[in-house]
């Protein structure tokens, strides 16, 4: 039996929580959890979250990405998660989602301001935009690394969703919700200020946003 069963179970539980909330699109999105200063657990590539078993969760070395455990191929974003965990040594969890509202803001290629004070304390003053690079490539990892800051714990990936870090997986899930709430607030403000758009269109957009936090 693996000595990392507890970490793998946390990853699977978090996958189910985020999938049920609609923050992981199909098989899109991936999660990582630090095991120790050498290893981390990460979701496999293209897996059905609802069918995951502990043996499916991959264990990789943080420095080389060498696979230590896991019956499946690790996420193509493993290098991005490793980059996050190496930079933020006090953070244990790294979560990449395709949550709808924050992903929409990421298409605008701008930082997402965080207005709510409680959200700012948790996430930082903004969710910084990372320039587009193809998924799973060294180009994306390098673009992401250049944007990492000690006081910012959430990042928009242009055309590719969100990644955030937290002290544990429970807080990482909370971060996902905070980022979505900040995105909803931002979009409401932008829609309300869009005086050139027909009033009926703005009302429909705002009504749709009211179903979100």
Automatic annotation (TrEMBL):
GO CC, any one term: cytosol
Give the signal peptide, or none: none
Q: Give a single Pfam family match.
A: Aldolase_II
Among InterPro entries, the record links this protein to: Aldolase_class_II_sugar_metab, Aldolase_II/adducin_N, Aldolase_II/adducin_N_sf
* Keyword Lyase assigned: yes
Q: Name one GO biological process term.
A: pentose catabolic process
Query: Which positions fall inside the Class II aldolase/adducin N-terminal domain?
Result: 9-187
Q: Which superkingdom, per the lineage?
A: Bacteria
Tell me the GO molecular function terms.
Answer: aldehyde-lyase activity; metal ion binding
Its keywords, alphabetically, are:
Lyase, Metal-binding
Recorded protein name is: Class II aldolase/adducin family protein
Species this protein is from = Duganella radicis
